[in-house]
Amino acid sequence: SAEEQQQWFDFALDIAKRAGLVIKDGFEKTKTIEMKDNPRDLVTDTDKAVEALVIGEISKTFPDHKFIGEESTAAGAKCELTDSPTWIIDPVDGTMNFVHSFPYTCISLAVWCEQQPCVAVVHNPILDLTYTARKDHGAFLNGKKLSVSLKDDLSQSLVMTELWCRPDPAKMAVATANAMKVIKKCHGPRCMGSAALNMCHVAQGAAEVYYEIGIHAWDTAAASLIVREAGGVVMDMTGGPYDLMNRRVLCAANLKLAQQMVELLEVYDEDRD
Ligand code: IPD
Questions:
Q1: Exposed/middle/buried for 86, CB within 10 Å: 0-12, 13-18, 19+?
Q2: Mutate to test the pocket of ligand 1, among 36, 92, 95, 273 (most ligand atoms within 8 A of CB)
Q3: Quick one: which residues bind Mg(2+) 2 (predicted)?
Q4: Is 91's C-beta closer than 6 angstroms to any atom of ligand 1?
Q5: Which atom in ligand 1 lies closest to the alpha carbon of residue 196?
Q6: CA trace torsion 236, 239, 240, 242 (10° rounding)
Q7: Which end of the chain is more exposed for a tag (fewer CB within 10 A), N or C?
Q8: In this predicted model, what pLDDT tens digit does every residue of 10-60 receive, in sequence order?
Q9: Which ipTM value was assigned to this complex?
């Protein structure tokens, strides 16, 4: 119900701000870094502390809600989306940036219900940027309504992607070949290091396109709603529907741009979340 959605939203915003203080504190200190699957997949004490804080607080208030969290999944929890209200959490998106004190990092928090996103918060506590959205109620940055860029020609567009590549030669070949094609056709390419913030930049009209192979559900769960509520499109890189678990995403200010990207991009199948 609308009342429930508002309650979840208020809670999400409050806990994201509290988590932001933990991230900001960690950002200014020496980081304790561990490697996950490969040398570019990192986790810090802050990622773990933030996820524990967020899940702990949410389960006190909403004991029957479910969770999908980056660090819980890394620790062996099942990554499963049912019809029940599910909080999808990336405690620190842009962990590599966080580790290097590059201030493009955030917490991403979404509530999905009946397999649809209904509440989203992406909060960068270092630069004090808070992106929010509720289903059918628009998207906002620090309370100001967002709308996507009006450009619809790739040659006039900023295109964001990440060349953060798992050291899998087949995947790297596809990602770099795609990037070379895009570089030739777009106005400018950007690789900033946080999938969630990249999507929010499409929502705010600062970039026209973002795509990536290899992302996870927690990277896009919140920002996909923010992009759509700002008037943009979110889909699979094949042009098919956006699938939270399929490890690929394409966001664009409009369908015309998305179609130009679909024609250009080759896809690569990762194992699903
Ligand atoms: C990563 C970042 C990065 C993207 C990766 C993500 P994490 O998230 O968003 O920009 O290239 O695909 O997994 O690990 O920092 O939460």
A1: buried
A2: 95
A3: 219
A4: no
A5: 9
A6: 30
A7: N
A8: 999 999 999 999 999 999 999 999 998 888 888 999 999 999 999 999 999
A9: 0.96
143 C-alpha to ligand 1 centroid (Å) = 26
Q: Which pair of structure tokens corresponds to residue 13?
A: 């915003």
The token pair that represents 250 in the structure block = 């394409």
Q: 1 C-alpha vs ligand 1 centroid, how far in Å?
A: 33
The pTM assigned to this predicted structure is: 0.97
Write the single-letter amino acid at 225: L
47 is in an annotated binding site: no
64 is in an annotated binding site: no
- CA distance linking residue 132 with residue 263, whole number of Å: 31
Q: How far is CA 219 from the centre of its chain?
A: 3
219 carries a ligand binding annotation: yes
